[in-house]
Each structure stands twice: as C-alpha cells, then as structure tokens.
Specification:
Oligomer: heterodimer
Helix content of chain B: under 10%
Helix content of chain A: under 10%
Shape of chain A: globular
Number of helices of chain B: 0
Order of helices and strands of chain B: EEEEEEEEEEE
Number of helices of chain A: 0
Number of strands of chain B: 11
Radius of gyration of chain A: 13 Å
Shape of chain B: globular
Strand content of chain B: over 45%
Distance between the termini of chain B: 36 Å
Largest sheet of chain B: 7 strands, mixed
Strand content of chain A: over 45%
Structural class of chain B: mainly beta
Largest sheet of chain A: 6 strands, mixed
Radius of gyration of chain B: 13 Å
Distance between the termini of chain A: 41 Å
Largest interface: A-B, 24 and 25 residues
Order of helices and strands of chain A: EEEEEEEEEEE
Chain lengths: ~110, ~110
C-alpha cells in the first residue's frame, strides 16, 4: 500500500513567522509532488508542485524535495492569518495513470 | 469560465436510496476523477476517466458506479446508499492525465446517509 504521511497538527505559528509543513511518502519511485491548500468547507487548490530534488520557490512559498529521504516539505514565509487552512500533500506514485495519493493534511493556524 | 462544477451541493439520503452526483468541466480537459474525503483522512480516489469513453477503478470503488457521458461530464452513482458513504465528494479534472499533471477540483458535494 503506497502511503503519504503528514502530521495532522494543528501547527500554530505567530503572524510573520515561518511555517514548516512536512510530508513523507513510501513509494521510492514517486516522481511528482504537490501541495494543495484547503480552507474549511472548500475544495483543495494547488499551491505548488515539485519534481526535482532541492528547493522551488514561489513568492512566500518554498517546496523542498529530498527523494533519498522520501521527504517533501512546504515552507511559508511571513505567515499571515489568511494562510490558516489545511495543507494537503499529494504524490503521484510510480506506475499507472495520473493517480495521486493524498496525505490526511496538516492544519495550520496563524495567530495575530 | 466556471472550471469544475458539481451538483448537488448537499444531499441527505436514507439507507438503500440511490442517487447520482453530477460533475462537469469547461476547460476541455481529457481526464476526470471522483474522490471522497472523510474527516481525518486524505482524499481517496473512487474512479477516474483517462479520456472520453474510458473509466477505471481507484482505491475505493465498491458501492459506486460512474459514467463518462461525454468529454465534459462525469457522473458518480450510488445504487444503494449506506451510512459508510457519508462523506464529501469532490470531482476533479486534468488536461491529459499525464505525468505530474495538475488536477483542478470542483466545490464538492456533501452527502449524509441516514
């Protein structure tokens, strides 16, 4: 069973701080990694995707991938209360079609 | 451009009743997906359609059937609803379904089975 694990949280950070969200996956052959944000009662929306080892930056968001350790993370700099949401890690595993395996999500709370 | 739309938004069923959840996308995407999301769990794939005319099972297909009516529409049917099917259902689509392709989600259908 291919799995994606996330700490459920809540992760509580003060406004302006860096929030660090982590995800591990079991399928060593996984190729593509996605971070989705989901506000309460809403649908998931894509924040970032990453394919290669290292860092990928987009505005206040940085995704980090370490395939050797089977680990992907999302850093949110200068966290804002509007960043409070659940963050879902999704992994396209090896083989088969474009099927994503989702983690259960980490709830982030940014307090003023 | 509405993206992915789903109907209904909410539904209450009694055990044994049937219903169909509708999904449509206007992005000319080839691939479409149905997920369910339960508290404390990630999204789980029920069925997907790589292209018009094809459907395949995902992780949790039991108790569901699907129809890819045309390129735009992908419906999910519960023939005999059970309380275990109480969940939030999301439809998603992607352009071709290829390697690492982004999936876009609809607003969801909240289903309660009594």
């Amino acid at each position: 069973q291919k799995e994606v694990e996330q700490n459920s949280g809540p992760l509580s950070v003060p406004e302006g701080a860096i929030a660090s969200l982590n995800c591990t996956y079991s399928d060593r052959g996984s190729q593509s990694f996605f971070w989705y944000r989901q506000y309460s009662g809403k649908s998931p929306e894509l924040i970032m995707f990453i394919y290669s080892n290292g860092d990928k930056e987009d505005g206040r968001f940085t995704a980090q991938l370490n395939k050797a350790s089977q680990y992907v993370s999302l850093l949110i700099r200068d966290s804002q209360p509007s960043d409070s949401a659940t963050y879902l890690c999704a992994v396209k595993t090896s083989g088969g079609y474009n099927k994503l395996i989702f983690g259960a999500g980490t709830r982030l709370a940014v307090h003023p | 451009n509405a993206g992915v739309t789903q109907t209904p938004k909410f539904q209450v069923l009694k055990t044994g009743q049937s219903m169909t959840l509708q999904c449509a996308q206007d992005m000319n995407h080839n691939s479409m997906y149905w997920y369910r999301q339960d508290p404390g769990m990630g999204l789980r794939l029920i069925y997907y359609s790589a292209s018009e005319g094809t459907t395949d099972k995902g992780e949790v297909p039991n108790g569901y059937n699907v129809s890819r009516l045309n390129k735009r529409e992908f419906s999910l049917r519960l023939e005999s609803a059970a309380p275990s099917q109480t969940s939030v259902y999301f439809c998603a689509s992607s352009e071709r379904g290829g390697w690492g392709e982004t999936q876009y989600f609809g607003p969801g259908t909240r289903l309660l089975v009594l």
